Amino acid sequence: MSEFAPAAGRLAVLTRQLCAAAASESTWEHVAQAPPDPIIGVTDAWRADTDPRKLNLGVGAYRTEDGKPFVLQAVREAERQLSADPAENKEYLPISGLPEFCRLSRGLALGPTSVAIQEGRVATVQALSGTGALRVGAEFLSTHLPPAHPRIVYLPNPTWGNHKTIFAKAGFQVREYRYFDPASRGLDFAGMTADLASAPPGSVLLLHACAHNPTGVDPDAEQWGRLLELTREGRLLPFFDMAYQGFASGDVDADAAAVRRFAEAGLELVLAQSFAKNMGLYGERAGALSVVTRSKEVAARVESQLKLVIRPMYSNPPKHGAAIAARVMGDPGLCALWKEELRGMAERIKAMRAALYDALQQRGVAGDWSFVLRQIGMFSFTGLTRPQCEQLVSKWHIHLTLDGRISMAGLSAASAPYLAEAIADVVSSGSSA
Amino acid sequence: MLQIAKMLQNVSSRAAGARHVFSARPVCSRVNFQAVRAASRFADVAQAPPDPILGVSEAFRASTNPNKLNLGVGAYRDEDLKPVVLNVVKKAEGNIFSRNENKEYLSIEGLEGFRRATVDLLLGQGHPAIQEGRVAAIQSLSGTGSLRVGAAFIARFLKGATVYISNPTWGNHRNIFGDEGVEWKHYRYFDAATVGLDFKGLTEDLTAAPPGSVVLLHGCAHNPTGVDPTPEQWAAIADLCKERNLLPFFDVAYQGFATGDLDKDAFAPRLFVERGLEILVSQSYSKNLGLYGERVGALVMVVQDKESATRCLSQLKRLARALYSNPPTHGAKIAAEVVNNKELFDEWKVEMRGMAGRIERVRGELQAALEAKCPQKDWSFITRQIGMFSFTGLSPAQVDNMTNKHAVYMTRDGRISLAGLNSAKVEYLADAIVDSVRNC
Fold this sequence. Notes:
The structure holds two protein chains of two kinds.
Chain A: H1 5-23, H2 38-48, E1 55-56, H3 73-84, H4 99-110, H5 115-118, E2 122-128, H6 129-144, E3 152-157, H7 161-169, E4 173-178, E5 180-181, E6 186-187, H8 189-197, E7 204-208, H9 221-233, E8 237-242, H10 252-255, H11 257-264, E9 269-274, E10 286-292, H12 296-314, H13 319-330, H14 332-362, H15 371-374, E11 379-381, H16 386-396, E12 398-399, E13 405-407, H17 416-428
Parallel strand pairs in A: 1-12, 3-4, 3-7, 7-8, 8-9
Antiparallel strand pairs in A: 2-10, 5-6, 9-10, 11-13
Helix pairs in contact in A: 3-13, 3-14, 4-13, 6-7, 6-12, 8-9, 13-14, 14-17, 16-17
Chain B: H1 2-16, H2 54-62, E1 69-70, H3 87-98, H4 112-123, H5 128-131, E2 135-141, H6 142-157, E3 163-167, H7 172-179, E4 184-188, E5 190-191, E6 196-197, H8 199-208, E7 214-218, H9 231-244, E8 247-252, H10 262-265, H11 267-274, E9 279-284, E10 296-302, H12 306-321, H13 329-340, H14 342-373, H15 381-384, E11 389-391, H16 396-406, E12 408-409, E13 415-417, H17 423-439
Parallel strand pairs in B: 1-12, 3-4, 3-7, 7-8, 8-9
Antiparallel strand pairs in B: 2-10, 5-6, 9-10, 11-13
């Protein structure tokens, strides 16, 4: 059957075309409706909800205490400066993006004392936020890993939904490693290390640098050390997704500790960096892809090949977001202001965790809810079951993804008690089936 | 040190005796690979050549020759050879900033106001296809990004289809379809003898194309030749597509730049839709709104019915999600602001006519200069060709002479961008061309 497949496919195309022509029906009759994106669906449902108590806990974007989107002052100021600068124009950026942005991005990630940067061993290209960096990185690896290396990527279970799609599109076989432990709502480290130890050498290992999405569960320092050993022994290629640098702890250096440790250990690694959350640049699509290699020479060749991936994808990246980010990172005053605002956002998230925890304790909700305080970043994996989540939506008008993930960014001091009340209700009623 | 690492790899692979070099743990696992600078897994990655078009600007920037002239990339320059930010763009940006808007993610399909505006521009406001809801449009990353999403859609939903692209065409077309695994073939287009359209060859090649094939057509101001079909020829091509069941895919990167008139330049895709054909269109606002680096464009599908449009949009979104999730907001806001604001829109049309007019003028001056210096050759193609580019007919060797001897930077296919020429440099360029033609 398999040797007839290409011909059968061709025949199908022809048949469709000829029939379509005859019946004057669309060429696209056979195109099925794609399923709706689950995350976007949450916000759509929230918008349509008329109940005044409604909460949007599906949002992956920071919200203020008033539930409003937030544009950082540092960003506004950088934008103002750009608009007033006569040297600015709208010319194409180079394929690899705004050079200053690339330089500052990798510096932010790898740190001011990075030997890899000093030795010129890091190839960096501007990318379309985190998604674009992941896609370009995946395509590059698919083409340029040595032929003997398996095109296999290990993703944590669970992970951001788009990871699987992106790597699959780039021709990778996707495998999962155990990660979230539902019992403790923490890290299943034994499972994780067992799965990684059995990975074929040369496989790609996707790691969330900090503030794991969707669980909020991160390895601790000791565990990162063990992961480094495993990666090195197993000859795995670490591919870090860093979408929350500065957002997890409030400190950009602390949040980059894992990435820097791997780089300092002399490992080659790939890094996807996003400025969507930590600079609030969401829709401007500011991101960077870095490949840390073993020599300056290799880095140069890698960069040239990254450009060959980019040119047929979008030619060159959008300028506005990167220009803002470069200005913020490069100007000492703006940079300091940014870091202060970033700390503020991270602190509010932590305060919401505390508020929710306290409210749950006050209501004496059954179970150990300390994980709310332990989990890191915007998201919390509550461990609520699908039926319980559905109850939250239908009865309490609290909108979240049905995997039990809530976004702390969607909470306020005022709404935390309401959420606690709702949780108390759904876990106590018979809907825990 | 590299040798030791390689030796260890060989030892392990022989030990493993397996197909893959890395299928067994290395024999000497106790060796500290940190001390030995292990070979990079990217050691065999080859240096890629510079991009044939964008590389020209890189080379130009690197040149220290005071006479240097950049006729490479199709980016508009004013009479002082400076980049131009359109007045309407500056005003639009001012409006946007004063509104203090947020930077939230756009939906996967992009800014609603922009999507409406771009379809209106393409088909004309109030077009029946729009009213019938049978147009699917997503905002994407300028022309390249839109073509890429379209190519991905074809790869997924027209498996096995071949895309026919003109010979010559914009070089990146081949890479875009190639990277999506879509097979491409050429159809004859440019006739070097007449410096015009090889309509007979085009017709023969498209007639021979298997039904269900895709045909990539330049909506206007063909890149790199500047040679466009006449309205009659467009009608014949449309009929051919209907008869042979070929799917037209328009690359519209110069709407407004060809004749200076937005509606006239949309003649071809509108004609095809009128003839009842389903089409794909990639639109770019890089040149006509001067939004180059902001990456503003759209992929549009005009289909037979509303239901199909809805389904197609859902799948376009899925493809975009895996490439970049959602498109950049800034450039789209500017474009929407200009098109949807009557005053700005009218002012835009004037600015665009100005740009197209300057190019027409330098074309005339260049032709006159060449005719004076080299009357034996027919230089009339320079004013016959449409849009930003002129296909000079210079050979690669002649192009090398242009660059190496005269510091005129251009692509090796003989294309020059008139947008990069001004009156002051016309004589210089004419001398360089004549020298290259005569002596190479």
